[in-house]
Specification:
Shape: globular
Helix content: over 70%
Structural class: mainly alpha
Distance between the termini: 75 Å
Strand content: under 5%
Number of helices: 8
Order of helices and strands: HHHHHHHH
Amino acid sequence: MKSKLLTLSLLASALFAGMGLAPVMAQTTYTPGIDQTQAAISTRIQEGLASGRITPSEAQALYRRDREIQMRENQFKANGDASPQERQQLRADLSFLSAEVERLIANRDVVGQPGYPGYPGYPGNAGNTPGIDNRQINISERIDEGVRTGRITRREADRLYSRERRIARHEAAFKSDGVVTQQERRQLRNELTALRQEVERMMHNRRERG
């Protein structure tokens, strides 16, 4: 009797597999193309960061967008199914992110090379500016917040990011000899203060109008 039940169970499993039911269930959340695209974008961000064509603050903003897409993908898969429309949305999101990465890499002067004294991460160097780098990251996050909440338009954000990149180029030039003087640090802080004030002015004015 047990042998007969086992045989019937095996036949049923084979039947379902033959009908394609098991593979369909497994395939509904299987997104190899999307996952490969995400991995390729992450690699390009790392390459841009290592070559100095993407600043640390820009890289952080790009990685944040990548995480948001990953979270959206996880939500789509939570019910055991990722519909064609949801897959198309993920592909569109990744396409926009990839284009932004390539735009930054193509339009950017190199800001420094790893292993050289002028590079921000060079250990034990008088050219290190962690406080300034952190301020850049904070400003980038604030701009992102403004775009998310609708208080800063995409065009305004592009202009703000352009100013941030200009400051990063100044920083790279100051670091090129391996030392950032007090006067140079003061100039960078003043430029970042002016940029932060512009960001906050936009945030405040849009909130007041809202």
